Amino acid sequence: MKRLSLVTSNSGHAALFQEASSCPVCSDYLRKPMSLDVCLKCINSLQKEPRGEDLLCCCCSAVSQKNKVRPNRQLERLVSHIKTGAQAEEILQMNPRMRKFQVDMTLDGDTANNFLLISDDLRSVQSGHIRHNWQDRAERFDLSICVLGSPRFTCGRHYWEVDVGTSTEWDLGVCRESVHRKGRIQLTTERGFWTVSLRAGSLLSASTVPLTFLFVDGKLQRVGIFLDMGMQNVSFFDAEGGSHVYTFRRVSVEEPLRPFLAPSSPPNGDQGVLSICPVMNPGTTDAPVHPGEAK
């Protein structure tokens, strides 16, 4: 997805692009750049050579004939794209205020697949090789290796973080309370799952139809999830770097939503653990907050 690949581009490269597209006189983004690579509004501030007809470069003092100064349209278009991308990068960042909505979440063992190993504090889960003989319940996933979190959400804004560690395969997000628990399930928005998935250590995708492939800078180790039921959005962030990963819009809120977690299964050779992170900044606020909103 090009928009996000631009937002999550390497910060070093972004700094170089920004420097190359800035006017050496006013340090702002080039506006109507000329062949001297300065803004049109800065041309008049350049020092004139002794005869008063030509212009001296502000950087190297080379002389340019005034009648040969021309608008640089190609550079102007390039700067416009760079400036738009830089503005988008500022917008699509994780808002620290989201953590004020962090919930104290645990795993619901009654929904866990029988091959899952859940920690005593109900905050960590991984796949095992031995099947448990847990009681068969209507809410338990019988074939799919996954578990739901508690509490369930009916309104308001909620935030939580999941440490995915070194796992090379996982699924995280939210789902409807009424999703099918028996048989193999398909993680799609049409079936009530709004999830981001990792496969083979680097293939990241969102559960749209068809799949939306995502691109991030580096490896996700802690995923932040922000659910705003009033706005009908669920957003995913790199909780360590603060960059935006993906936002589902028009999420169905006609019934309760549940946190969804699925670690890798043992046949994939990955014993990665998914851990719900403890609440960092307890407390609530009545002020609305949306992804990208200023602090």
From TrEMBL:
It catalyses: S-ubiquitinyl-[E2 ubiquitin-conjugating enzyme]-L-cysteine + [acceptor protein]-L-lysine = [E2 ubiquitin-conjugating enzyme]-L-cysteine + N(6)-ubiquitinyl-[acceptor protein]-L-lysine. InterPro entries: B30.2/SPRY (IPR001870), B30.2/SPRY_sf (IPR043136), Butyrophylin_SPRY (IPR003879), ConA-like_dom_sf (IPR013320), PRY (IPR006574), RDM_domain_RFPL (IPR022723), SPRY/PRY_RFPL (IPR037960), SPRY_dom (IPR003877). It is an enzyme of class 2 (transferase). One of its GO terms (molecular function) is ubiquitin protein ligase activity. Residues 85-279 form the B30.2/SPRY domain. It is found in: Cytoplasm. Keywords: Cytoplasm, Metal-binding, Transferase, Zinc, Zinc-finger. Its main location: cytoplasm. PROSITE patterns: B302_SPRY. It holds the Pfam family zf-C3HC4_4. SMART domains: PRY, SPRY. Its EC number is 2.3.2.27. One of its GO terms (cellular component) is cytoplasm. PANTHER family: E3 UBIQUITIN-PROTEIN LIGASE TRIM. This is RING-type E3 ubiquitin transferase. It comes from Macaca nemestrina (Pig-tailed macaque). The lineage of its organism: Eukaryota, Metazoa, Chordata, Craniata, Vertebrata.
